[in-house]
Amino acid sequence: MNLLRLSLRTLRREWRLPELRTLAGSLVLAVAALGVVATLSTRVERGVLASAAELIGGDIGVSSPQRLPDDLATRATHDGLKVNRSASFPSVAFAHGRSQLLDVLATDTAYPLRGTLELRDAHGHTQTGHGPAAGNVYLDHRALVALQLQVGDMLQLGGRELHIAAELVRQPDGGQLIALAPRAVMSLTDAEQAGLLGIGSRARHRLLLAGAPAAVHDWRDWAQSTTLPQGAQLITPEQTRQRMRSAFDRASAFLRLTALLSALLAGVAIALAAQQYARRKTSEVALLRALGTPRRRVFGLLIGTLLALAVPALIVGVALALGLAQAAWLFASTLFAGVPTVLPWGPALAAAGIGLAVLAGFALPPLARLAEVSPVAVFRDSVTRRVRRFDGLYLVPVLVALALIWSQSGSARLAGILAISLSGVAVAAALLAWGLLWLARRVAPGAHPALRLGLAALARRRGLSVIQATALGMGLTALLVLAIIAPSMLDGWRSELPSNTPNWFVLNLQTNQRDDFSKALARLGADQLNMLPLAVGKLVAIDGHPIDGLHFNDPRAKDWSDRQLRLSWAGTLPPANRVIAGHWFTPHPAQAEVSVDTMWRDMFALKLGDTLSFDVGEGRLDARVTSFRQVDWSSFRVNFFLLLDPAHASALPHTWLASFHLPRGHATQVATLSRAYPNLSLVDVDDLLDRIHQIVDRVSGAVRWVLAFSLLAGALVLAAALSASAAERRHEAALLRTLGARRGQLRIAAACEFALLGLIAGLTATAGAAGAGWWLGRQVFHIEHYVPPLGSLALSALIAAVVVMLLGLAGTRKVTRTSPMRLLREG
Amino acid sequence: MSGTPRFLLDVRDVSKSVQGPEGRLDILDGVSLQVATGESFAIVGASGSGKTTLLGLLAGLDTPSAGSIRLDGHALENMDEEARADLRRQLVGFVFQSFHLLPALSAEENVMLPLELEGDRLARTRAREALASVGLEARRRHYPAQLSGGEQQRVAIARAFVHGPRVLFADEPTGNLDQRTGHHIIDLLFALNRDHHTTLVLVTHDAQLAERCVRRVELEEGRLRAHSGEADA
User: Fold this and answer.
1) Which of A38, A79, A115, A266 lies at a 20 to 30 A Cα distance from A665?
2) Residue A389's pLDDT is what?
3) Measured between beta carbons, which residues in chain A are less than 8 angstroms from residue B171?
4) DSSP A195
């Protein structure tokens, strides 16, 4: 008979079997959970990307110190992308005898392609707008205050009289988030006609593009394959500043982690159900084999049945995933204003693929071994028992789990930590289960009869008990990581941006201005003042070899060696810095020393003991590398790639870089201060901080949504796994009832059994989740001083043990009611 | 209860019917019988005659639709399932056609089960003695899958006798065994029955086995057709 028809017929006969239902249910849940998570994750990632695109004003761009070749824009237009050209440069504006250095953006009227340009008119009404028409200019509040102008006035910029059409409230930054001076936006035509962009100007030219993701992707590939002008750089959402990137990486790591753990939970449930199915089918397969069915055909029939079950389950899972994702989106979409609203199908379909992989990985081993059942097994059960022992094929689920971890985490470190933590939990749970069972047998003779019966019940299913404890332990670890560790890490992450984070930076402060400036700031109510010396130099040689003659594999090295470098020095290791190799400076080293950030170490392939030579002003400094530092660039403190020892560096010509926190609403006072110290550049990062807070809020809100879904899926998968294992107890219950066991005895026995299982799982999961959390916090998410919330973890483990017990009791409720007549009917 | 009842089992006009898809189905109809203490009693009949249902009722695994069953003086029809379970634990032993040993338990642990239900602290020692009495002490650590059919049934018999039941119910105890092994098992069953002064009620369609019982009844379509053997005690 056709194998497919036979498979379908088998399924029609067997689909009511509890383990097949569990298997199908687990698959539906797995695909739904994975699909919901992946769909929401994709949308959240799009949201984050869109936020980043809003920040740079386009989906992608290129910036260059020279005029950009036309073919970049031509190609983009050809690909159907929208194009915005602009240039930024410093220029001095004049009005009423006053002058002010402005950071000018000259743009066409397509600006901005993404995000919004917020303008305030003369009546104080705020509205969105585009780049100004020729003859017009927008000035920000600081510029208006500094020049004592109002919207509607005229000012002179680049030799042209321009009309102030609006106050600039907020603008996408074109990749430059920190403006050094008050800002102005003018027309590109005006700037070109005024000769502001000619040869010798300090303008940075920019081309920003926006459009369909595929077209953006194509253009990006093309642009990367062509030769860009010297000094030109691609601007991508991913590259917008370190802090953004950090937010982005952490968000996607959380999301990947969530999806991954859901898949593993499903795998555990599927494995238990498949094992159960294989056990039930053993005698049938033995009969088929005895009747002459070849092994291959038996295997084909088993696979066919499984597929016939899996296909509808996958379809239901995908449908459920899309439906739930859409419903969740409707609730959560307020978090993601401006994110594309199209429901992506890809992630749910990919989830179905992963679901199939999980099914294959976790269900095939028992079924493959089942097909090998000897025909002799029709006569002797003992033959069938032998084939279910552990063998190499059972490494398949382990490999599938590892492959999933690898593919889903996208990070070797994340994958490694998770795999090691989960394996540790598995081993610990197994050992603990063995130990407790051993102990149970020792204490059982003196215990209460019902309790002893429960312990005996656990002990007499030693193998299964260990497997269940291990699976539950791993599942609970996953749940605890998701439910406790991830949110607490999010809080840790958020608390890294305290409300008094420095929001102003001051450049070019001279030594003789330090005291007065500090006092002036104190009068304004500023706090968190921090000053660091700043020398500007150039790297000229490594170990005596001129830098120009050296070759480095990292292309960034060339760029950095051409640049002016910012050098600073400090006697003590600054916060957010960690020495990972070598030692921090001794008070009076014989030779100048330098501490190097790890990015620089990798870029220039530096080793401890190398000597770096810098030209600073008229002099030269040779400094030996004595330590490498890991710097948390997301800390919003002033950090340096290169730190020199103060004993040798303090004689270098330098200015000071200051950062401080000033409550909002002090623009007028800051403008006054700026005029009192005309040489200083005051940088306002409040706006940037606002946006980062917003993005962190958005992302953490979304992650919590995703967590809630995973948690639900995880709990359901756990329940399914428990009920699958509970089914085989019925026969035992019938026998015990026949021998005179009371229902209460069976219930207490089941309660003891599941409570002990839950306790083992809870204990190992608490330890596992705490360990994994601590490790993840340090190594992957770089949250300093992260301590997992042990109290919440322990409480959750206790609750989990109770829940496991209740789930177990619920799952065995029917079992305790089994009629003892069942045994007589069975013969 | 006061005094010892005359019959260990006293069945009066018992009927059992169930609701089937095509209406009421009478499985047993007006069955009456008495079994004295220490007696061996066989219920024979063709498949579907109601033997197993009757055995289930006699052992208190189920309740009759009508009539009365007294086991050691206890009216089973008036007891709830929990009370009947208590009674079974104290008075009843079982031997099944399919042995019904728990596969994950060793022979010794299987025999310990009824004692564990009683909370007996000497369960292991007593189980060992019971296994010794069926000649399987050396195999006490073996699991059912490692034992032959005859050995499994001997373990089941040890389990049935271990807690000293007053009555042993056996449902086709040789049904899954070859003739020679079956004979050995029956010999063992009757020997233990004699040594322990246990009442034996067995259901079989094996005429030779039934012949070894002191009394026999035959069921046909739910009714008792004939009594044979020694007169009522």
Assistant:
1) A115
2) 45
3) 824, 827
4) T
